[in-house]
Amino acid sequence: MAVGFGIIGCGMISQFHARAIADIRGAKLVACYDTVPAAADRLAQSTGCKAYHDLDAMLADPDVHIVTIGTPSGAHMEPAVAAAKAGKHVIVEKPLEITLRRCDQIIKACQEAGVVLSTIFPSRFHDSAVELKRAVEQGRFGRLTLGDAIVKWWRTQEYYDSGAWRGTWELDGGGALMNQAIHSVDLLLWLMGPVAEVQARTALLAHKRIAVEDVAVAVLRFANGALGVIEASTAVYPGYLKRIELHGDQGSAVMEEEDIIKWDFARKTKRDEQILAQMSQRKSTGGGAADPKAIGHHGHARQFQDVLNAIRKGTRPLIDGQEGRRSVEVILAIYKSAETGRAVTLPLAGDPALKARKQAKG
Fold first, then answer.
1. What is the spatial distance between Cα 343 and Cα 131, in angstroms, rounded to a whole number?
2. pLDDT means per 10 residues in the chain (362 residues)?
3. Handedness of CA 136, 138, 139, 141 (dihedral sign)
4. Most CB within 10 Å of its CB: which of 61, 108, 225, 287?
């Protein structure tokens, strides 16, 4: 019997979820739901699944075993908690939620219900990212000294005007960092380890009618002593492929989108030339640098398969709720530092996003 998926939130990202599910052997998209009934109807018509106009009714469907959630970022918690209570496994688009309190409520609900929770960060499943992680674990960089995430993208004013939730603290939870660069923040933490301190500046420079940042720069001190930089923007025309740079006293590597463009180590191995040759021509899309629809769904498919494997084996998925929470915490620390002009240490005490959201409302 096929594992049945249900999609909650039938906007742009739902198309990628549907394609990913279609690529997985033994999986089937059986249902979808959106607060806008017409959106659910459109997805159902294009995929052949059943459209629900009532969330509780979809969650009561015995053919739905796993739900993926692609609602606006600040509206992830309510359907995630409802799905967990209904006994469904839960896959949530990034970010897990926009405050730590809301992240924790999702995590708690899934733990109490005994269901698997995963936060979508498909970049971790790219072959090039896996090679970088392997090199870190093998100690090939020596002592890690610098780790950078660079996301210089472009979004038009029309992009922000296309949805009332875009560019708001209440539902987007932030701007270039929380919405776009969070994929690279997650990768950087996965590769470099936890962050101990951040100091940051943010600005709104190229867009109107939004409350959040379109430029952000943060200096990081990692728990292992290494330093790093996060640069994130949706105000860089025409938009460039995102980069991750790792450096140590025994090696360096640079990943641009899915390409490894630098792979230099003091102690070389037989695989190094092969890795550089195979991983330097992997650009299949523009990576969303200028067009949010210009991404592939192969990373989603691999992550959904990872969740299925975890369910079947009773193990933890690669990116569970706690893993998803980490990048949110770092981004909230960056926002707090930018707001106060001071360095912020981690882990955070309290939920700084609440203050920002209250200020935005006032």
1. 33
2. 94 95 96 98 98 98 98 97 98 98 98 98 95 98 98 96 91 96 98 98 97 98 98 97 97 95 95 88 62 73 97 97 98 97 94 58 34
3. negative
4. 287
